[in-house]
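A quick aside before the break. I want you to see a complete sequence-to-structure record at least once, exactly as it would be stored in a machine-readable document. Don't worry about memorizing anything.
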Amino acid sequence: MKAGFFLRTALNHLRRGEQRVWAALACITFGVMSLTAMMIVSQSLTHSLLMTPREQIGGDVNVGRQSESENVISPEAEAGLQALQAEGVIERYLLAAQAGTLLWHLPNTGENHFASRGLGIDPAAYPLAGRLVLAVPENMGLPSVLAAAGDLVISRDLADTYGLAVDDTLVLADLDVGRPVSGVVRGIASDTPNHEGGRIYYTIATAEALAGGQRAVNVAVINAPQPQAALDRLLALGWWGISTEQITAEIQANENLFTLLLKGAGMLGLMVGGIGIANTMQVLLRRRQREIAIWKTVGYTAGELQALFVLEAALLGAAGSLLGTVLAVWVSRGLITLITRLGTSLVVWSLPPEALVTGALAGLATTVIFALWAIVRAAQVPPVLLLRDAARTAGQQAWPQTVLLMGLLAVPFTALTAVIMGSVGTAIGVLLFALAGLVALGGGLGGLAWVATRLLRVPGLPLVRLAQSSLRRRGLGLVFAMIALFTGVVALALGVVMTQDAQAALEDRTPDFDSYEVALVAPAAQEAAMRAALAAEGVTAYSLGYSAGVAAIEVAGDSESTLPPRLLGQETPRDYALNGAAWGSDPQGAYAPEGYAREAGSEVEVVLADGRRVTLPIVGHYQQQYWTSLRLEGGLLMPAALSKQLALPETVLAYVDTPGDSAALSAALGLAVPSATVVDMVAYAGRFTQNYRNLFLLAVTMAGLALLAGVLLVANSVSLAMLDRQYEIGVLKAVGYTRGQVLATLAVEYGLMASIASGAALVAVQVFLWVVGSMNPLAGQLLQLDLGAGLVILATGVGLTLLTVVGGTWRATGVSAVVLLNERG
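That is the input. The structure line, written in tokens, reads:
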């Protein structure tokens, strides 16, 4: 009977709580949403981003050739691998043709898309580590779908983004060569060995066709009984690479940090909710002091009252936890979508039931634990003091008892944190870090509030003096609200800084499309067809560049110093920034890559395919002018006439100027010259800028969630303050204050509080940026918070606070003075 009575009583109290209950419910919901969403995100990302060392590099060792002149693995180099295999140093090896500049388009269109990586493989041997899982067709092995030259397997993100299906025809081209090769999609991979998307797989024969019929394998993946020992042998034979032993510790550290950050952020959100619950329950029970006194007078013990109030808190926690888990599902899906857009990882959003259950139970436990702070204190007060309305009430308790109670309640919350974090030590570390942060922030913000309310005198403004007087009485509830608002504004300011930085990077790195908007890459034999197509489209403003391979490029007198064996002939230096001699001033002069140790005036020897040696003077250096440049290879840059005089071009590239629609021209040229690869440079730049735009959105989203936490605690503080200040409002209205004047008083009060918290946050961000800039001058130039953005952020923090104040006090300030004064006590 008592249990049923308590349940009915608890439900009635919650039903009549109205604004007070909604304030507590919002805090619980936010805390559970934060924790559960971070747990879901952590679970979803763990599979995709946290790989074993073997999955990350494809095997025990991943190697390529050391010399820049060896851009492929020659048969002689492969013979060295076979010798090591015969010795037992390596068990198995796999050669692959890796292409980082692969484009594709559909037939009969000129619109090119970019694959993050193309990989020519032996389907019978691939992969040595991890799995390539085919979603379509199911239950078939890789050798069955990559059976011949031209067969393709694409990752599911490409299929989903572009609506591709099995049996679709794609035209591939490597930008370094520009020779289109047709292929047919034979399979769609739902997962890849290193969980990376944007992939196109094909046979070695297809890779050689993309390379213009030349040998194409450039990477070797190796399994070895002793990976580091095998790598040491390979390094001595002219290979470079990495082994699993070198990255194991780094991967483990990344995994630990990854888990700590995500789950730690969730726990901090839960703590924010818990603080709001503690504040709410404290005021709720202080409003019920006489009720508590009557209960105790008629014979109910402190334990029974605690059970009643714990039941109320548990019911409230259950409702908030349920709502929080529902919102967490929606929030986590959105975060995974944003994170996926930042890269090419095949991230799959998953909904682990244990995360939902853990989040809901954690919310319920946190509600009860933090509510006990107020419940135990309220239930221990003697009824005679409550009935007399004595000074020692539920809100005022001796500090030794307060410290003891905090210690007792810290034990179950630490245990809860340990369960979520998976380690008692980590849990204690997270809580101590949070506690230290709260103490430091609370002390700093409380000190600023003390200065603003006691030392800052504003004569002639009674509303400001009244606001200062009210703020001095707010106590810890105000400090916690300031901490939350401070954190939210810091997150928002850093998000704005990142956005401004990324936007500046976009502007700096976006090519000058007034220079050229369309580029064509093709085998040199197609130059005449390319010129004819451009003439047919009425294009007259263009220039050409050529690329030719040679046997070697050596520094004269130093055979060990080499450059990439490629001649880059240009009619004009379109993509390159030069220093040294003016372009064309020396028809026989060449430009070396930026960073080349020899000064202008030195010489290099170009070893041609027939063995002839030609000595050229270095007249300057070059660097790619744009990071979106199509010229990704290195080598010697020189006038086109000199390049063609030394070696027959292999690839020709046309830089086209057009005042019209670059996309339309690209499509037309793609149809007119099917043997060429046509690139819309505007779309090509978008390949790089899209990641920045996605970063904007992610930064703003995370900052918005942090700011939401701040606004929630401010709303909680305002809501609870109104319960304590009804008599004060009644007095103000009785002596002639209108509703608008009361609202203005509250707006000044909380506007001052928000100005302190938001201003301190902006100062903290500026100090952080100054520290970063002193450590890294380049970062200091990029990461800046200008005055205009700072003022907007300050206005946002104050504005949201004022909106919250108006929304939370509109009803309370509309009650007549008689009703408010009659509710005294």
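Two observations worth writing down. Residues 390-398, 509-514 have pLDDT under 50 and may be disordered. The two ends are 31 Å apart (CA to CA). We'll return to this after the break.
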